[in-house]
Amino acid sequence: MDGIIDLNADLGEGFGRWQLTDDEALLASVTSANVACGFHAGDPATMRRVCERAAEHGVRIGAQVSYRDLAGFGRRAMDVPADELTAEIAYQIGALDVFARAAGTRVSYVKPHGALYNRAVRDREQAAAVVAGIRLAGATLGPLPVLGLPGSELHAAAEEAGLPTVREAFADRGYRPDGTLVPRSEPGAVLTDADQVIKRSVGLARDGEVTAADGRALRMRARSLCVHGDTPDAARLARRVREELTAAGVEVRAFA
Asked: What biological-process GO terms show up in the record (predicted)?
């Protein structure tokens, strides 16, 4: 391993007066912020505020695009026609970039959220529609890196389209033996023990290895590590993960 890892988290996941993520605290630890663009969470005021705070902290801003599913937090399976999904992806990226540029920065990458993230791992058509939306937004923004699961259809489609890809691993999610994530409907999908999450984070960043749900070791070379912003005590966990990565000799640095 090269001893360098990006630390990302999902931010801006609120709506109106309801706030889910501790954005200010998370921004003190992460190097990349996956900002909700209004389809699974977020609203214009929240997007603007998070972009301003991210710019102040020197944190890179990524568009966390989703199916249009506020009620289900973007975690429900949906069937969206490819052309419609392409337009919705471009729409979300463009909306976030307005606030990013007003804050003196820009959208630096794209990461799907929830059900769309998992669907695009295996569904070639949906993955291609997401990439088409990223390219559509890129007509004015330039080629945007795509953050996603290694070996996914999303990354295959992005590479075919000439977009940079960034391999992502999860500090707090369970893995199946094939390298995909354990569905949230199954036991062991989300890891809540802080010591376990920290140990996994260091193993992923330093050794390129993670333990699957069945106990076998998986090779997992990643450039970015995700700590979910909506897990209990996420801000403190992200801070501890960063501290332990640094103590282990891993440089925490944004990929974008």
From this structure: carbohydrate metabolic process
